[in-house]
Structures are given as C-alpha cells and as structure tokens.
UniProtKB/TrEMBL annotation, chain B:
<dbReference type="Pfam" id="PF08402">
    <property type="entry name" value="TOBE_2"/>
</dbReference>
<dbReference type="InterPro" id="IPR008995">
    <property type="entry name" value="Mo/tungstate-bd_C_term_dom"/>
</dbReference>
<dbReference type="InterPro" id="IPR003593">
    <property type="entry name" value="AAA+_ATPase"/>
</dbReference>
<dbReference type="InterPro" id="IPR027417">
    <property type="entry name" value="P-loop_NTPase"/>
</dbReference>
<dbReference type="InterPro" id="IPR050093">
    <property type="entry name" value="ABC_SmlMolc_Importer"/>
</dbReference>
<dbReference type="GO" id="GO:0015697">
    <property type="term" value="P:quaternary ammonium group transport"/>
</dbReference>
<dbReference type="GO" id="GO:0005524">
    <property type="term" value="F:ATP binding"/>
</dbReference>
<protein>
    <submittedName>
        <fullName>ABC transporter ATP-binding protein</fullName>
    </submittedName>
</protein>
<keyword id="KW-0547">Nucleotide-binding</keyword>
Automatic annotation (TrEMBL), chain C:
<feature type="domain" description="ABC transmembrane type-1">
    <location>
        <begin position="70"/>
        <end position="259"/>
    </location>
</feature>
<keyword id="KW-1133">Transmembrane helix</keyword>
<dbReference type="GO" id="GO:0005886">
    <property type="term" value="C:plasma membrane"/>
</dbReference>
<feature type="transmembrane region" description="Helical">
    <location>
        <begin position="12"/>
        <end position="38"/>
    </location>
</feature>
<keyword id="KW-0997">Cell inner membrane</keyword>
<dbReference type="GO" id="GO:0055085">
    <property type="term" value="P:transmembrane transport"/>
</dbReference>
<feature type="transmembrane region" description="Helical">
    <location>
        <begin position="182"/>
        <end position="204"/>
    </location>
</feature>
<dbReference type="Pfam" id="PF00528">
    <property type="entry name" value="BPD_transp_1"/>
</dbReference>
<feature type="transmembrane region" description="Helical">
    <location>
        <begin position="66"/>
        <end position="93"/>
    </location>
</feature>
Amino acid sequence: MTLAAASDIVGASNKRRRPVGLLLVALPVLLVGWMVIYPIVAAVITTIWRPDANGRYGISFGTYQFFFSDGYSLANLSLTLWTTVLCAIFLVIICLPIALYLRFAKGRLAAYVQGLAIFPLFVPSIILSYAFIRVLGPNGMVDILLNAVHLPKIRSPYLTPWGPLIGLVWDNIPLTVLILIAGLGSVSDASIEAARDVGARSWQVLVHIILPRIGNSILVAVSFSVLGIFSAFTLPYVLGPAAPEMMGPFMQRTFRDLYDPPNAITQAVIAFLFCIVFGLFYVRSVVKNQRGR
Amino acid sequence: MAVLDIKGISKHFGAGVLAVDNLELTVGDGELVCLLGPSGSGKSTLLRMVGGFETPSGGSITIDGEEVIHLPPERRPTGMVFQSHALWTHMNVYKNIAFGLKLRRRPADEIKRRVDAVMELVGLAGYGERQTHQLSGGQQQRVALARSLVLEPKILLLDEPFASLDQHLRERLREEVRDIQQRLGITTLFVTHGQDEALSMADRIVVLRDGKVEQVAAPDVLYREPATPFVAGFIGTMNLIEGTVSNGTFSRAGFSSPLPVGDGPVTFAVRPEALVIAPAAGAGAAKIHRVTDYGTHAIVDLELPDGLRLKSMVPEARHWTTGQAVDLAPRAFSAYRDNALIYRSNAAR
Amino acid sequence: MAETFAPPRRIDWVGISFAVVLTLVIIFPLIVVGTWAFTNVWRYPAIIPQEFGLRFWSQTLARPDVWSAITTSISLACVVTLLSAIICLPAAFAFARLEFPGRSLLFFSFLAGQAFPKFGLLVAIAGIFLGLNLIGTFWGVVLIQLVGTLLFMIWIPVAAFQGVDRRMEEAARDVGASPLRVFWSITLPQAGPTIAAAVLLTFVNTFYETEGAWLIGAPGIRTMPVLMISFINNQPVIQYGAVLSVILWIPSFFALLFARRVISGGSFARGFGA
C-alpha cells in the first residue's frame, strides 16, 4: 500500500483501452515536460546561446567565465561545497548508529527513539530556523542555561557557516534514518547470527556483513541529502552569514535583488553540474528499487 | 569427539510464556539427536540456546564438560545451519565458507585446503566462484552446511535445514547429511517438525510439547512404544479412542475390547494396521464411511455410532464398500490414563 | 561444572543515551518556541519567563499581514492540492491498472525533478516565468507548487491501487458488479486510506513550501512561511514569531496524527530509493 509496491508497474499487464491510459496520464506528464525538462534544457541553452555586443546570437561562455573568475562567486561555491560535504559526513556519523540501534532494538524505548528520529519530518524548516535562533542564538536558551550555572556564553553559530550546517543536518536526519533502516531491513537476522556462529564479533559483523550490504543505501541517503543541501535556500538564508553565502541564497539574490536572470540561471546550471552524479545515481537507485520488487 | 549436556534449562519469553521448561538432555559423542515437535513446542528455542542465540532463563549447557552458557555464539564450539540458509549474499560461495577461517586468521594455504576439502565433502567442488543467487535451493543448503563444517565444530546444530526445499530434494539431502554426519562422527542436534525426517535420520528422537520432553527414544521404539497419547498421536497415524473401562472391558459407543486395568476413563490407542475389520452380521461396531485405495494397501475410514472416526488399514480395497457394517478387532493396542501408559497388549510389545 | 545460570537484567544504555540526546536536540528547541508563544514577559537571563499569558496571541492575530498570509496560504494549498488530485489520481489509476505504450518510461519521468538540486530548478523555472509574466502572481506560485506535488501524488496512489488485490476485484465482477461499480465499491475503499494520506501530505507540503513561494511569489504573494522569514529577519518582538510558529505547526500536527503510518512503514523510505 505504499510507494514500494508501485514497483510491478512494469509487470502488470492489462490490455484495456490503450488511448484512455495515455489520455489519463497526459496532463501530469506534460506538466513535468513543461516545468522540469524544458526549463533545464532552456537554462543550459540560454546561458550558452547568448547575444554578443552587437545583439547577434552565438555560442558564448561569458557568464560561466564570469562565475569562475569572480572571487565572490567562487567563495560562495566553496562555502556550499564545504557545507554539503560536512553535512553528508555528519549525517552518516549521526544516523548510522541510530539506524543500527533501531534495526536491532525492540520495545518501547526503541519506538520512542524512532519517533524522535522521524519527528523533524513534521517540523517545517522555517519553524526549525526560528527555534534554532531562540536556542542557539545570542541570549538564547543555551546562553540562559550557561549563565545560570555561571559559565560564559557560547559563540553563537547563528549567522556563521555553522548555522545552516546544524540546521540542515537536523532537517535531514529523518529521511536519512528511514533510508538506512530500510537498507538494514535487507540484512536478515539469520545472516548475522550465522556470522556470529562462525566466530565474528559485533564489530566484525558490522564490517564484514552489515556494511557491505547497506553500502548502497548509504550512498542513496548521501545522494538524497546532497541534492537537497547543495541548493538549500531557507536555512542558509535565515541562519547563514550574509557573505559569503550558499548557492541557494546567492541564486535568489542574483535573480530577485540584482535582476540578473542570466547569471542566476548560470549559477543554477553550475549547481546542476556539481550534483549531476548524485542526481543520476539517486534516480537510478529509485528506478532499480521500484522495478526490482 | 564431544558430548552435549543440557541440564535444567528453561526459557521465559516475557511474563508467563514458558518456551522451554526445566529441560534435561544429553547428546552422546557422534550421536544425531532430533528435536521433534509441533510449532511452538520450544524445539527451535532449545537449539538456539545451545548455539548461544537465546539466553536461557536458567540452567546449564556443557560441551565436553565445559560450561558454555556464558559464552556468546562466536565463542561457542558449535556450528549452526539455519532454516533460511542465511548465506551472505555479497560474498561468493568460497568466501561464504572461508569467512569463519579468515576471522580466525588461519594462513591462506590452510584456508584454501580446508575450504576445498569441505566443498568436496558436501558435493560443491568447482562452485567456489559462484554467487549465492546463482545456486539452487539444495546447493545453498550445502553451502550453509559447509560453512559450519569447515570450522570443525564440536556440535553441529541444524534448524529445520530442509524446510524450504521440495520433497524430492529433501529426501536426497537427508541421506547426504546423515552420511556426512556419520563419516565425520560429529555430535549433532537437529530440529524438525517432520516426523519422516526425524524417523529416517536420528539415532534418538526427543519429542517436545509445550517446552517439555514427552519422550526420548530411538525411532523404532518411539513408533512401537509411544509413552504418552501425544507421542502416540504425533508419530505415525494412531486411532485414539477416549472411553471408559469397567470390569476389565474398555468400551466406547459400539466399540469394546478386553482391557485388564482398573475401572475409570482411559485413552485407547490402536494403529490402523492393527485394527482388524470383519463384515458384521447385524449392526456391527462401526460403519464404513469411505474406502481409499493406495495400491499397495487401502485405508478404510470407519465411523462409530457416536460419530467418532477411526482408520483401519487393509490389504485390498475391493472387499469393502461404503455404508457396510463391520466388526472391529484390535490386534495390538495400548492404553493411557493421566497422560501415562498403563497397559500394552502383548502383540504391541 | 553445571552451575546454574541466571542472566542479569540488561539495561539498554545505548537506547537511553539515544533517547536523552535526541530529546534534547529535537524536542527541547521546540519546547522553547512553544514557551515563548505563551509568554508575556521573558527578559534575559531568567530561566523561566517572568510572566506567562496570551497577550501576544491577540496582538499577533490582530495584525492584518498575518491574516492575509493565513488566507493566502490556505487558499494556495487548497487550490494546489485540489488541482493535483484532479490531474494525478486518474493518472495514478491509469499507471496502476491500464496498459499503454511508454507506460514505464512515463512513470519514471516524474523522477526528473528529483535528479536536480531543487532551488536551481526553481531558478530555471523562474527564468521561464519571467517571459510569461507569472512572477509575483498567484497562479505562478500555484504552478510551481503543483509541479512539486506530482511525484507524491502519483507514486503513492499508484502503490495504493496496486496494493488492492486483483482477486478481490475479480470476485466482485464474478458476483455481478460492473467495472465502474467495482472501482467505486472495492478498489476505492481499499486504496482510500493511503490516497487520503497522500492528499494530506500534499496539502501539508504545499502549505510549508517556502522556496518557490519566495522566489516566484514575492512581493505580491505572501504565504505564512514567507511572512515568518520576514518576522525572523525584521521583527524585534520575539513572541510574534513564536505565536506564528505555533499556528504554522498546526497542519504538521495533523499530518503527524494521520500520515505517520504511511511514513514509518519501511516502504515509504524505499520509495526514496533506499
């Protein structure tokens, strides 16, 4: 009754009213074509096929040359890469132990931990931003508590690169945990017991039996978060520093505040290029997964 | 090689659920003992406690006199073959079998020699590079067996190893496993819910019910001399007739038989092959409900006047017709009272 | 040698530490926000607010920008969810039960949006909208949010329709029900709860959609999350933001109540490619 069962889409066969089927799916498919495929193709073309000084159109990499020669753009790009890489690392370090615990633990405590791990899914990132400021911001709850026990205030991560980083990790915990748990589901109890039976200790079971089996799930979880984090907007915009800024706020500012769509779209295409590997891998995994069952 | 001694072992699941109840069992050196019982009888739990996968609530398990109950599975000298095979699908056949030796840091040439030898033993020679998903169910089972045997465990544990295989393959593997077990002389504990499997493989069978031992005996003894009505009904086919004895005669509806025990309620047990039928002159003790011809023999389903169904085995179907009235003569039988055997007729001894 | 063995009652320290840490990290910040919303006076460095009260609720709800954001958000989410249901549910049924050329390819085409960083895609779409004069309009925001709902609104109902056992439908045909009757009396009630969850999730996701609304809608269209951003950036009175957060969380609360079952099931995550 869920996404996974959508799988045998390929297998099910029923030769009824061919045109009706196409007609029914036409609208959403056209919408995807018009609002996803076309903009992406158009974005690539309009940033390459540009008018020169005389107004004649031709192939030009001007906006790309500008991006890669502009110190500020490059600083934004490297801040984005730094945040994305660290987020991915933190997510794996934090979520893998939680997922492992949830895979093997039973009972009320485990249910509580699982509920907590999934809870951020039900907290919109804008509320999260606000809560972040109230807790970790200047004179926030942490400062209040530290002050109460006569300790110095923290150096608030608010408006530093660590602000969006913490927020993004928080925001991405639920889906990472869910993807990892689903991956761990394919490791049967018996195959772990069999390994212990032939003499493997807990860490050897983890290294030799569990990790090889969920490597793919880890990559999927990482790809999914990378795609979200690389062009995240809300959290970096609200919690991050004004300069340098991450690609999301940067694109938004270029587009809306500087009224410079060509450069904004160039930045978008550059974001596409940096994520293309993760995007393709992610889509391939989902397709494989859906077909496989 | 090794003796397995289980003393006073119990296992509670949660409050009140007693999976294994104060159980005693000794498996002798080189012996193959089958744990037989319906699902929920605690047979798998017992096996998993020996393997170290369940923690007993109390009791002791020793192997060659050495207490193992505190040891985690990886440090017990036991090798387990799982029902679902539990092969590691990211490793090929060779790596599956070699994994345990690698963990023990054996030299590479020794690993190769031992893995090759065991693959030869289970009939997998030349399959080392195969991926596990390329194997048939029977071959997967052989890998699982080889994976345990290569470590030369003192005790081999088999948890319904043939449950996922078809009937034909099951019979073949049964013989092979028995051959290998006898050749290696390895002490083996085997869990099954199929009596055929237990009867054909075991030196001794332990019949379990609700976590308690009903009877421990060699297969032929178990069949001929079941100690309780449960064993009588569980092993082979048995007509169990609840009735009463008065003045040395057992009776139930139209059926009666001399039974030299004290008055009171009794469970009368007679095998179909020992229940002789003869055409009745009048109403008879029972009516024939159905006749099923199996070629080599036929089974006659009988119905007592109060509706109780019995079975009788006859050499040929053609003398018997549905609705016919017959008289019954039990040739060999036993009787139980309060879950214990109180009488066995001479012929049944 | 045969000593009696009684295992010690093991305490799940790992679980306890996870529970404590996650409670501190996940629940504590939200409690702080909740406390602020019901606080009249809370001056640094008091640990407990000096005065609790509902004063800022009436003040927040009296602001015209809050009311207009609430109506904008609700009407946007309703329109998008309704449109999405109208175009997606028949398509989902077709994908689940009808045979037509290119079905598999078209089914997976909805993943296209997932292969790209989302905000980059929004900028690319905004580039197109610029030429169509859709920037800053209600329908521009509707369109961009509608695209975001397609994957969920097709894939989850497809799974729901396929989850209905064909034999159940065949049995209904067998006792004399017409195909339409079978759909109405058997297929829909069976698939209904999952589809309802999908609709609810779509509504909630649209309600919280910030980036498209901000990029395409500003300045004309101000949804609640967009208003919240400006509160965070420009509003010195802390309680306004806190009260708005609590109001903003209400749809999520309903999603939490009704859609959790769908999400906690492992198959939800598998839909993300796990």
